[in-house]
C-alpha cells in the first residue's frame, strides 16, 4: 500500500431501540453530565443482561452438570458460580466495548480486555468468597421463610438436601451481583475506559 493511499477504519456502531429512550432519560436527568448518565444506563443494561446470562448459566450448571451435593459441595458451588461469572464477563466486555463505550479506542482491544478482565477478576474473587461463605446460612434462613410460598406453587413440596444450598447460592449470587456491578462500573470507567470524555 502506498503512502498516498488512505486507509479508512470502519468503526462498528451498534444502535438498538433502547438508544432513543436512554438518550432522552440521560438528557433529562443528566444535564451537563448526560453522556455519563447515558453510559451508566447502558452499562447497567449490559450488566442486567450479563446477570441474566450468569444466573441462567449457574442454574443450568447446578441443575444438570454440577449439582451442589456431597462430596465436595463447596467446591462444586464455587466452580459452577465461577463458570457462570466468566460467561457473563465475556458477554459484558463485548457489549460494553461495542455499545456502552464505542468511542474508547485509544487503547488496543487486547489491553482493554486485560484491564476489564482484571477488574472482573477482583469482583469474581470477592463474589466467590461471598457466595462460598454465605450460601449455607442464607439457604437455611430463607428456606423456612419461602417454603409456604413454594408450597402454594407446588403443594406437598419437601425440600431436597440440595434445595437449601441452591436457594442460598442464588440469594448470595443476587447480593454479589449488585455489589460487583457498582465496583465494575466505577473501576472500568476510571481505568479501562478513562479515555472517553
> Overall mean pLDDT score?
87
Count the E strands: 0
Multimerization status? single chain
First CA to last CA: what distance? 34 Å
Q: Describe the global form.
A: elongated
Report the major sheet: none
Structural class: mainly alpha
Outline the structure in words.
The chain is mainly alpha-helical and 197 residues long. It has one domain (19-192). The protein has five helices and no strands. Helix 2 (34-65) packs antiparallel against helix 5 (163-192) and helix 4 (109-153) runs antiparallel to helix 5.
List the helices and strands and how they pair.
Blueprint: H1 19-30, H2 34-65, H3 73-100, H4 109-153, H5 163-192
Using brief descriptors, characterize the structure shown:
single chain; 197 residues; mainly alpha; 5 helices; 75% helix
Gist?
This protein is mostly helical and 197 residues long. It has five helices and no strands. Helices cover 75% and strands 0% of the residues.
Amino acid at each position: 500500500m502506498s503512502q498516498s493511499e488512505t486507509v479508512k477504519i470502519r468503526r462498528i456502531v451498534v444502535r438498538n431501540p433502547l438508544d432513543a429512550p436512554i438518550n432522552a432519560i440521560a438528557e433529562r436527568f443528566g444535564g451537563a453530565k448526560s453522556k455519563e448518565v447515558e453510559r451508566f444506563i447502558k452499562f447497567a443494561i449490559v450488566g442486567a443482561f450479563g446477570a441474566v446470562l450468569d444466573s441462567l448459566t449457574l442454574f443450568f450448571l447446578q441443575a444438570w452438570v454440577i449439582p451442589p451435593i456431597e462430596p465436595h459441595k463447596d467446591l462444586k458451588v464455587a466452580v459452577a458460580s465461577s463458570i457462570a461469572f466468566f460467561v457473563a464477563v465475556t458477554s459484558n466486555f463485548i457489549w460494553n466495548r461495542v455499545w456502552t463505550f464505542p468511542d474508547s479506542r485509544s487503547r488496543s482491544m487486547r489491553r482493554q480486555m486485560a484491564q476489564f478482565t482484571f477488574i472482573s477478576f477482583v469482583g469474581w474473587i470477592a463474589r466467590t468468597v461471598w457466595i462460598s461463605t454465605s450460601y449455607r446460612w442464607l439457604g437455611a434462613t430463607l428456606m423456612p421463610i419461602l417454603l409456604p410460598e413454594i408450597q402454594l406453587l407446588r403443594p406437598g413440596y419437601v425440600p431436597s438436601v440440595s434445595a437449601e444450598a441452591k436457594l442460598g447460592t442464588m440469594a448470595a449470587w443476587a447480593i454479589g451481583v449488585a455489589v460487583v456491578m457498582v465496583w465494575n462500573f466505577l473501576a472500568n470507567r476510571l481505568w479501562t475506559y478513562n479515555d472517553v470524555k
